[in-house]
């Protein structure tokens, strides 16, 4: 009896050991299943960002075997926080903002250009840029919007010092401030330009869609090196989404992105009535890079030497 009891205890112990090994195996498989390599792209809410989001909304990333997510933020400040805390490993931003964060985040590099454009929108009573002398204009002083305003004013023989600048982080809030009369004008991108037009405001100046207008895709270089194939897929999908817009000549394929951004139906209609054609993703021109960085340095947003070569990463599909 005692020997049988010992054998029984031994068998139970063996079963417990085997079961523990099986659970370890299950946990390992579960961890491997959920630990998939992915790209998380941070954006603000503009045309450049909507194109990146199209890849998610139209399942283009998934269909190309890339597990990718796109997180949209209301302002450049919020996007930069996501870059700092590691929430995102790629981002759609502009050259001036990239200059501002590049020293703190030296492992982030420029992957290539992104489509997009800026505009100066004013209360309808102002018929020209010159009429804005002494008036209040909403911008984000730490990104491309102030740089854009500087260049627009210069063409009308005005300086930044000839207008009053009001810091408003998000474009949505700038549209609201323009509507309420808190500001006389604002630097905006679409879909915010179209929202302002719905309110009756006037576009005084706007970039051409076929030119490079400072928008860029930036990527955590350490992550990109470890995931070269996924980086190429990310860029390729974005290029394909640009082609889909160019093919239709408008924004119909981006409507889901606009819906996610809370764009009004009337503004979406204006966007859909707009004819656009963009360049595909390509290398940032050295002249554009140097001008943006020199401006950032003048504005004390950037310190140190300006190196085009160090800031740009090599990607097979970006020429």
TrEMBL record:
Keywords: Signal
One Pfam family this sequence matches: NMT1
SUPFAM superfamilies in the record: Periplasmic binding protein-like II
Primary subcellular site in the record, as a coarse category: periplasm
Superkingdom of this protein's organism: Bacteria
PANTHER family: ALIPHATIC SULFONATES-BINDING PROTEIN-RELATED, TAURINE-BINDING PERIPLASMIC PROTEIN
Protein name: Transporter substrate-binding domain-containing protein
Taxonomic placement: Bacteria, Bacillati, Bacillota, Bacilli, Lactobacillales
């Amino acid at each position: 009896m005692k020997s049988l009891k010992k054998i029984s205890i031994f068998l139970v112990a063996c079963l417990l050991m085997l079961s523990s090994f099986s659970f370890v195996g299950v946990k390992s498989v579960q961890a491997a299943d959920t630990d998939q390599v992915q790209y998380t792209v941070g954006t603000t809410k503009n045309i450049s960002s909507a194109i990146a989001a199209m890849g998610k909304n139209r399942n283009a990333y998934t269909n190309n075997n890339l597990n990718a997510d796109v997180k949209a933020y209301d302002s450049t400040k919020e996007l930069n926080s996501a870059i700092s805390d590691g929430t995102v490993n790629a981002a759609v931003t502009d050259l001036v903002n990239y200059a501002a964060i590049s020293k703190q985040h030296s492992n982030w590099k420029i992957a290539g250009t992104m489509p997009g454009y800026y505009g100066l929108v004013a209360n309808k009573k102002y018929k020209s840029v010159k009429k804005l002398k002494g008036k209040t204009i909403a911008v984000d002083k730490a990104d491309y919007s102030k740089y854009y305003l500087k260049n627009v004013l210069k063409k009308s023989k005005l300086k930044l010092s000839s207008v009053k600048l009001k810091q408003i982080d998000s474009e949505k809030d700038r549209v609201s401030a323009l509507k309420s009369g808190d500001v006389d004008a604002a630097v905006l991108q679409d879909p915010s330009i179209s929202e302002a037009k719905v309110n009756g405001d006037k576009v005084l100046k706007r970039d051409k869609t076929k030119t490079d207008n400072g928008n860029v895709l930036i990527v955590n270089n350490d992550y990109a090196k470890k995931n070269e194939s996924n980086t190429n897929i990310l860029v390729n999908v974005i290029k394909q989404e640009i082609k889909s817009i160019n093919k239709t000549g408008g924004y119909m394929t981006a409507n889901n992105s606009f819906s996610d951004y809370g764009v009004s139906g009337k503004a979406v209609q204006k966007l859909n009535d707009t004819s656009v054609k963009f360049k595909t993703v390509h290398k940032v021109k050295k002249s554009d890079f140097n001008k943006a960085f020199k401006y950032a340095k003048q504005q004390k947003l950037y310190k140190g030497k300006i190196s085009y070569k160090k800031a740009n990463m090599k990607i097979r599909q970006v020429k």
